[in-house]
Design goal:
With 426 residues, the chain is of the alpha/beta class. It has three domains: 3-21 and 234-364, 3-Layer(aba) Sandwich (Rossmann fold); 29-229, Nitrogenase molybdenum iron protein domain (Rossmann fold), CATH 3.40.50; 396-424, no CATH class. It is built from 18 helices and 14 strands. The radius of gyration is 25 Å and the shape is globular. It starts with a strand and ends with a helix.
């Protein structure tokens, strides 16, 4: 990694970083579309066929769903401390997401007119739990717990089987503790299609959430006319804003933490201090030597990492709002001043004792966040993703009279005589 001035950053990298979320799906859409179409037509048979092709696992129809015995065995394969850690994370995630439920209201519009909004949960949700480079039970918690808090009755989890045909026990335990009702050993586009269209074994759902690779994301995009989805998700990202008061070791380790996920992850430091920039580079080089996933983190930091020496924190804030990172860490003397100017970020972590990794696991905030600049228009996953609202209106005769003239005038303007008569007739 090299230190760039903000001018060099603008000339060489800014456009590329801002446009990092523009995926070229042209190369994968034809294949994924074929898989989706086959699952929609052939159901379980297509799921079994593609599981054999892509995962080298010979499924039978009665093995698609994870049974109770396998669930019980999964609990026995985790240590007590692992189970307690999952339970502790669930408790905090529940507490944070329960605070998001206050969406209903009723108010007086004028005399005799009451309007409002009622909130209802979705009936069913499908969660995709990836298991590529590693299983992520924490992602299952982040999807299933808010759905459960929202009141969703049927929560499905689909996860790719391992080479021996099992679903990772950590994923199974996390799903059951978080409230999932059904688990299936199916991954890839075929899992997305199965949840969107339904098969003989997997019931269709109202919405699909959860991260996945480019093929899974492409499948979600293709089925979004049949089922709701969360948002396109890509590799992990972190942007750190730091001044001279920051701890360079914390910065270095946080950059490494988010980039060890994927060689296409993004790790950027923007700082007003040359000393902090130089120290962070040195520590990154040192820490990578002993990191088990150093090849992944190093590839990400070389390809999509940057350290930018900015003239001012205000300049850094402008860049941050353009980049709209998934994780934004603010390590400055007054982090709240910076935060109050942030418009675009998936989640923000304030001060030297708030690493983004806490948000990844157990602080309560959700880690399913928009990447690739989508934080400019999307929010992170929340209870709202599992709720829908129904607006209501109740008028007395007096209220109808008060609104009659306005409504009839507007209906006449639009040439809709039937609308006007429906009001006047009363």
């Amino acid at each position: 990694m090299k230190i760039l001035t903000d001018r060099q950053f603008e000339e060489k990298l800014l456009r590329k970083v801002v446009n990092r979320g523009i995926f070229d799906f042209d190369s994968v859409f034809p294949d994924v579309e074929g898989i989706v179409r086959d699952v929609a037509t052939d159901g379980d048979d297509a799921v079994i066929r593609y599981t054999k092709k892509f995962d080298a696992v010979n499924l039978t129809r009665d093995r698609i769903k994870v049974g109770e015995r396998e669930i019980e065995e999964s609990f026995s394969r985790l240590t007590q401390s692992e189970v307690e850690a999952l339970k502790g994370a669930i408790k905090n995630i529940q507490r944070f997401h329960k605070a998001q439920l206050k969406l209903s209201f009723s108010l007086k519009i004028t005399t005799g007119v009451k309007a409002g909004r009622a909130v209802r949960p979705l009936s069913s949700v499908g969660i995709y739990a990836p298991a590529g480079r590693a299983p992520y039970p924490s992602s299952v918690l982040m999807c299933a717990v808010p759905a459960k808090v929202a009141g969703v009755k049927r929560i499905l989890v689909c996860s790719p089987p391992t080479r021996n045909g099992d679903v990772d026990p950590k994923t199974i335990v996390a799903a059951k503790l978080a409230g999932a009702t059904d688990l299936f050993r199916v991954g890839g586009p075929q899992a997305i299609a199965a949840m969107a269209y339904g098969t003989q074994t997997i019931q269709r759902v109202d919405k699909i959430v959860g991260p996945g690779n480019v093929f899974v994301t492409a499948a979600k995009i293709l089925v979004r006319t049949k089922v709701a989805i969360d948002f396109p998700a890509g590799p992990s990202e972190i942007l750190v804003l730091a001044d001279e008061t920051a701890n360079p070791k914390s910065i270095a380790l946080d950059l490494i933490a988010q980039t060890e996920h994927d060689p296409y992850a993004v790790g950027i430091l923007m700082t007003t201090s040359k000393g902090i920039a130089e120290a962070a580079i040195a520590i990154i080089d040192m820490e990578l030597k002993s990191l088990p996933r150093r090849s992944i983190a190093k590839a990400a930091l070389v390809k999509r990492g940057a350290i930018i020496l900015v003239k001012s924190l205000d300049r850094a804030i402008d860049y941050a709002n353009l980049i709209a990172p998934e994780h934004l860490e603010i390590m400055t003397r007054d982090p709240w001043r910076i935060f109050n100017q942030v418009r675009n970020a998936g989640a923000v972590f304030l001060g030297k004792y708030s690493p983004s990794t806490l948000g990844d696991y157990c602080a309560g905030t959700n880690h399913v966040l928009p990447t690739g600049g989508y934080a400019r228009m999307y929010s992170g996953l929340s209870v709202n993703d599992f709720l829908k609202t129904i607006e209501f209106l109740q008028c007395t005769r007096q209220g109808l009279v008060r609104l009659r003239k306005t409504a009839v005038t507007l209906a006449t303007m639009e040439g809709l005589e039937g609308h006007a008569k429906s009001i006047v007739s009363r």
